[in-house]
């Protein structure tokens, strides 16, 4: 199993949207590195759901429910992919970007190193630490 983080502006698509749908397609990714990460996701992988924008915080955990498939922009296959996610669990306490940046265990996380990526891997030790911070 691998661990991931996805980012979304809550006014565009937030954790509550995923909860209300029960399962949804994670699509619209138009960055080559993020696309390659989507291609690596496997069913059952756990995914941290991060709200970008004003609050900048991890709010929940989702699971990959369907591996990469074509994200058909304008009805054509242009090489972009999407995955399906299902909500798994909301964090009792959100974990803020400020907390992440000030934590030595999380100092090498992609969220800090390459903050513009919308989809990124997370090391198991970092994932577990974030879950502990959020409980």
What does this structure look like?
The chain is α+β, with helices and mostly antiparallel strands and 135 residues long. The protein has a single domain (3-134), classed as ph1033 like fold (Roll). 27% of the residues lie in helices and 36% in strands. The protein has helices spanning 15-21, 32-40, 97-101, 110-113, 124-134; strands at 3-8, 24-26, 46-51, 57-70, 81-96, 119-122. It has a six-stranded mixed beta sheet. A hairpin with a 5-residue loop joins β3 and β4. The protein is globular and about 45 Å long. The mean pLDDT is 96.
Helix and strand topology:
Layout: E1 3-8, H1 15-21, E2 24-26, H2 32-40, E3 46-51, E4 57-70, E5 81-96, H3 97-101, H4 110-113, E6 119-122, H5 124-134
Parallel strand pairs: 1-3
Antiparallel strand pairs: 1-6, 2-5, 3-4, 4-5
């Amino acid at each position: 199993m691998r661990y991931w983080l996805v980012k979304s502006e809550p006014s565009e698509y937030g954790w509550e949207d995923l909860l209300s749908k029960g399962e949804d397609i994670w699509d619209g990714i138009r960055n080559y590195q993020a696309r390659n990460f989507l291609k690596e996701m496997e069913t059952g992988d756990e995914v941290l759901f991060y709200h970008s924008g004003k609050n900048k915080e991890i709010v929940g955990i989702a699971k990959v429910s369907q591996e990469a498939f074509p994200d058909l922009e304008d009805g054509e296959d242009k090489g972009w992919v999407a995955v399906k996610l299902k909500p798994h669990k909301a964090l009792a306490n959100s974990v803020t970007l400020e907390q992440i940046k000030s934590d030595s265990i999380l100092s090498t996380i992609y969220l800090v190193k390459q903050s513009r990526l919308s989809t990124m891997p997370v090391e198991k030790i970092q994932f577990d630490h974030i879950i502990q911070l959020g409980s």
